[in-house]
Amino acid sequence: MNGVLIIDKPQRLTSHDVVNRVRRLIGQRSVGHLGTLDPLATGVLPLVLGNLTRLAQFYTASDKAYEGVIRFGFSTDTYDADGDAIGPVRSVSLDPQKVRAIAANFQGKIEQMPPPFSAKKIDGVPAYKLARKNREVPLTPVQVEIKEFSLLSIEQDRAQFRARVASGTYMRSVAHELGQLLGCGAHLETLRRTCVAEFTLEEAHTLDELEAAIEKFPINELLVHPRKLLPQLPSVTANDEVAAKIRSGRAVNLPELSGARQVKVFYGQRELLAIATRVAGTLFHPKIVFAAEMAKTS
């Protein structure tokens, strides 16, 4: 089975747990995900199945959108609600105007310190492995981009937010650093991812829904339509002659797309054959071929 399936990840499962569950449900090993979610977080987790796992390279820098709640009064060692409190819990009553003024610092391109419990590599070792052993985690700030950080409501010791960020941004760090600037400590209490690239919650299915669907009908009906993938790239539908060349990795002429740098090549309405790159003029070479064998017409 080849395609993209959007899962609404539940709390307490890792992204890898979800991948393993889907592998068992559909009876297929070739399953990957497009962007890790922490166990605490829920929401959009796009999975790539079969030969479309090779699409992952096009989503490494995708924007992501979130909704969540920041709790003030104490920080934690993981920067979220799954961690242990650092210091005593303080009773706080937030001044919304002050909080919003300080939150304005978390807009645009900023320097951010990754959490010690993260997958950032230190001499080839993930930071969280060092942190779990109570070893020093010598992380350094990295530049990230926060395109939107809106505080929707601020009541007592909690703030509800909405954010849109570039890849590599940690909302846990935003919560932690906001608490530091306010002098009261803070951590990420809840987080829900609402969007990754073109994939949204409206297209997502729970694991229970997936399991129920498998018993009733082919799960192809749950997959994202291939024509919706990588909307920034123009697409072309190949005839039999062009499709045969593409499948064998040969360059083809695509005169209708002479101005494009990369294009999606389809056979029929649903089969994504390849991502092709323009060599010169109207000549395109398939950079990635998803299907080498002739398939039935969709």
SSE layout and pairing:
Elements (H helix, E strand, L loop, with lengths): L2 E7 L5 H12 L4 E3 L8 E8 L14 E9 L2 E2 L8 E2 L9 H8 L4 E5 L8 E2 L2 E2 H6 L9 E14 L2 E8 L5 H12 L3 E11 L2 E2 L6 H10 L18 E3 L2 H8 L4 E2 L8 E6 L3 E10 L2 E7 L9
Parallel strand pairs: 3-12, 14-16
Antiparallel strand pairs: 1-3, 2-3, 4-11, 4-12, 5-6, 7-10, 8-9, 10-11, 12-13, 15-18, 16-17, 17-18
Helix pairs in contact: 1-5
In short:
With about 300 residues, the protein is α+β, with helices and mostly antiparallel strands. It contains 6 helices and 18 strands.
Explain what you see.
The protein has 298 residues and is α+β, with helices and mostly antiparallel strands. It has three domains: 3-62 and 198-224, Pseudouridine synthase (2-Layer Sandwich); 64-196, 2-Layer Sandwich (Pseudouridine synthase); 227-289, Archaeosine Trna-guanine Transglycosylase, Chain: A, domain 4 (Roll). Helices cover 19% and strands 35% of the residues. Strands 1, 2, 3, 4, 7, 10, 11, 12 and 13 form a nine-stranded mixed β-sheet that branches. It has a five-stranded mixed β-sheet with strand order 14-16-17-18-15, covered by helices on one side. A two-stranded antiparallel sheet has the order 5-6. Strand 17 and strand 18 form a beta hairpin. Helix 1 packs parallel to helix 5. The longest helix is centred in the first third of the chain and has 12 residues, at 15-26. The two termini are 14 Å apart.
